[in-house]
């Protein structure tokens, strides 16, 4: 069975409640019909109830079975606002400010999760990444022992690369210029994502323009330091670097440039040195090589909140709801 089918089948067994804050958005509504028909998750749409129903009718999306909540009038507002004030005490958030924030579905969604009223969230079809992530950072926060949220993509490429043609790319979505410590954490959380969602044995390559000291530059030094930190954070994982992309994924080049490495030539998790490299890199592979790209799968967050690219398709939304449901259960395939 193909990985995506497995992810969807697993999601349907989990019966998770996923909140979609962009409830009046057409692709989200079309995706909702498919998610409900295929029983992938329970769906909560946020928005003005009449407007959501009217838009669904206009585009012919059958959303019967989805729950619709209007953040501006929902009875949960009072409890959520109190919790927000409590969580942002150190920042001086007032109840009035919290109630205003709750008008925004991108704040209401994370508060549903924080209060146990939803298991995960997916947004970003019409909102910028930062606007989706900021409420999640502020109120859902990171996993214990993890200081940084990052975004991974599952890339489906030629079968000769990675794990039977699947590679995990990271960070492609969040941290513009990670420190060596943050890069090390990204490596460890990316390995966990690869294991949990793809079910592979991670071989993590810390990418650079230099392989094992071939170039001398502060940018390569950062990756060398990050590799050491990641290895000490997770001594049982196969993490190696710094290495160039070809040394990471091509057997002959790996053997030549990094002889003896357990990762070189066989990497299935690629950790990019910066967001520029990661974001450009995944889009190059997607657009020029025609690879299917699923993500970003956000990792390091205390609950699954995922962000879509604004260019996303209905299928992307369906797939990411299934991934989010799997993350919510913290399970593998
Ligand atoms: N992990 C965990 N927490 C974080 C992270 C992170 N990566 N980044 C910021 N935070 C926290 C901060 O600690 C802060 O918490 P606090 O309020 O409790 O003190 C809070 O989030 C806000 O921090 P700021 O630095 O003010 O965050 P800001 O809103 O300026 O930036 C953001 C965060 C929006 C994610 C920024 O890093 C960003 O814009 N990144 C790029 C996103 C992007 O455009 N990606 C490319 C497109 S995605 C795609 O193509 C698929």
Tell me the structural class.
alpha/beta
What would the CATH topology of the largest domain be? Answer: Rossmann fold
Helix share, percent: 40-55%
Q: Termini distance?
A: 11 Å
Q: How many domain regions?
A: 2
Low-confidence stretches: none
Strand content: 15-25%
Describe the protein in words:
The chain has 333 residues and is of the alpha/beta class. It folds into two domains: 168 residues, Rossmann fold (3-Layer(aba) Sandwich); 143 residues, Rossmann fold, CATH 3.40.50. 46% of the residues lie in helices and 16% in strands. The chain is built from 13 helices and eleven strands. α2 packs across α13 and α6 packs parallel to α7. The chain is globular. The chain starts with a helix and ends with a helix. The structure holds acetyl coenzyme *A. Acetyl coenzyme *A binds next to α7. The site of acetyl coenzyme *A has 16 residues, from α7.
Compose a concise summary of this entry:
The protein has 333 residues and is of the alpha/beta class. 46% of the residues lie in helices and 16% in strands.
List the helices and strands and how they pair.
Blueprint: H1 3-14, E1 17-20, H2 26-37, E2 42-46, H3 49-59, E3 67-69, H4 77-87, H5 95-102, H6 105-114, E4 120-123, H7 129-140, E5 150-156, E6 166-170, H8 180-198, E7 203-207, H9 218-233, E8 238-243, H10 245-249, H11 251-257, E9 269-271, H12 275-288, E10 292-299, E11 305-307, H13 314-329
Parallel strand pairs: 1-2, 1-4, 2-3, 4-11, 6-9, 7-8, 7-9
Antiparallel strand pairs: 5-6, 5-10
Helix pairs in contact: 1-13, 2-13, 4-5, 6-7, 8-9
């Amino acid at each position: 069975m193909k990985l995506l089918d497995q992810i969807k089948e697993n999601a349907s067994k989990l019966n998770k409640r996923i909140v979609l804050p962009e409830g009046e958005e057409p692709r989200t509504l079309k995706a909702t019909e498919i998610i409900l028909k295929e029983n992938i998750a329970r769906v909560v749409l946020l928005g003005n109830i009449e407007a959501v129903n009217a838009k669904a009718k206009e585009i012919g999306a059958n959303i019967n079975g989805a729950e619709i909540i209007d953040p501006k009038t929902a009875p949960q507002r009072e409890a959520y606002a109190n919790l927000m004030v409590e969580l942002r005490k150190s920042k001086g958030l007032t109840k009035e400010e919290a109630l205003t924030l709750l008008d925004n579905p991108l704040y209401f969604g994370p508060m549903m999760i924080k209060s146990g009223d939803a298991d995960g969230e997916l947004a970003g079809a019409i909102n910028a990444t930062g606007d989706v992530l900021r409420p999640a950072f502020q109120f859902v926060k990171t996993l214990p022992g993890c200081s940084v949220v990052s975004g991974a993509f599952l890339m489906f490429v030629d079968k000769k690369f990675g794990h039977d043609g699947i590679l995990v790319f990271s960070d492609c979505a969040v941290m513009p210029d990670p420190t060596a410590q943050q890069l090390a954490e990204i490596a460890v959380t990316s390995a966990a994502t690869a294991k949990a969602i793809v079910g592979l044995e991670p071989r993590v390559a810390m990418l650079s323009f230099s392989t094992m000291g071939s170039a001398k530059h502060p940018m390569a030094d950062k990756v060398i330091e990050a590799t050491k930190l990641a290895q000490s954070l997770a001594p049982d994982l196969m993490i190696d670097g710094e290495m160039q992309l070809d040394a990471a994924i091509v057997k002959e080049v790996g053997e030549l440039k990094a002889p003896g490495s357990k990762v070189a030539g066989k990497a299935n998790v690629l950790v990019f040195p910066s967001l520029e490299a990661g974001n450009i890199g995944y889009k190059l592979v997607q657009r020029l090589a025609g690879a299917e790209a699923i993500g970003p799968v956000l990792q390091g967050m205390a609950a699954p909140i995922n962000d879509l690219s604004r260019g996303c398709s209905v299928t992307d939304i369906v797939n990411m709801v299934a991934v989010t449901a799997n993350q919510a259960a913290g399970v593998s395939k």
